[in-house]
Amino acid sequence: MGDWRKKITISLRCWWILFLSVIFGLSLCTCTSKKVADTQKTGSIFVNSTPTGANILLDHDSTGQTTPATISNVAVGDHIVSVTKQGYFSSPNSRVITVIENQTSTAEFDLVQKAGSIFVNSTPTGADIFLDHAATSKTTPDTLFEVAVGDHIVSVTKEDYLPDSMVITVDENQMDTAEFVLLETSYGSLKVSSNVDGATICIDKKPKAEVTPHLFFNNVPVGTHIISIFKEGYSNQNPAKEVVNIATGDTVEVHFTLNPAEVGKVIGNITPDFDLQDDLLLPHRLYAYRGFVTIINFWAEDCPNCMKELPHLQDIYEEYLSDTLIIFGINYGGSFGQEGLDVIRRIRDELQLKFTLLKGAGTDVKSDYDVTSTPVTIILDREGKIHFYAVGFVSWWLPGKLREELDELFGK
Questions:
Q1: Phi, psi (5° rounding) for residue 314?
Q2: pTM of this structure
Q3: Which of 237, 257, 278, 410 has the most CB atoms around its CB within 10 Å?
């Protein structure tokens, strides 16, 4: 009998221990599950800046996104958000944003351009001043204000004198100086020929009335010149342009090769020619820029993605300026064709755009390029052929893709 009671007692104790173990295990699992659930609570942060196109950092790490953008799946709690953009500083430098579960918090930044100025003078005075190849409507001596920090090309031209240029590094809140001593023009001769006769001759990106073959006898100013040619229905075989030095009394000869090419929208085609005015009323003919890597971008103010892309194009222009990248931003007039020079000039000022903006409204350029959806961004190689063609804008893909394609063309 004693053994029987002893066995029952032991059995009951075992069952009790087992019961407590199960209860404790369930509690532990519940606590663990609750802790895991807590760590998985997330929200999002919408980050924007004025101007847009700034790189977004979360807790000091790059997100790979640019403003405006939403950072998703951010753990609940406090986070440090900051933005960076070349040539700008942000106000404030960073923000502490509290992320709430399943909600979107907002971080807004005002970007202030770091700027300085350049005093430009020449001997003799009265020379036209250009900044980064764009006319400023100023003549020497004069000061260019609110110039973005960094390297800029300052050029001057004056009739009967050789043009000159130099690279000036602008420092924040400082005035730099560009002094030029202009040399009087004298003349030499230039002979231009091609495998296909009748090609238009361009000197310094300006089309001439003369066609190949032609001898400019003793009427080309001495100094360095960029020579190229073009003909409808042809691309240019590399080298598509020649940089020549004309000396007094000398004759320089250059020869170009043209290849038949189809006009279209696919890689390897050439694009239609255009002759459009910029916002300073200066003409630009596309085919005169053969030999230069060129970006063509169709944009309008009432196209949201166009306005997102323009700041990225400005950043790319600054990065590849020393490689002589040409960018033509063609405003096609918007949905109603009513955007004019006033809109172009305002957008240039608001976004601090330095590349060439052209007025396409009132011309056939949009239909010539068969543009039905915007923005459209095209990269032309030095031969004038399409190297890259994109419709629309995706902030996390297109800017990087453009840089990748440009690096290939510039051999980087």
A1: -65, -45
A2: 0.63
A3: 278
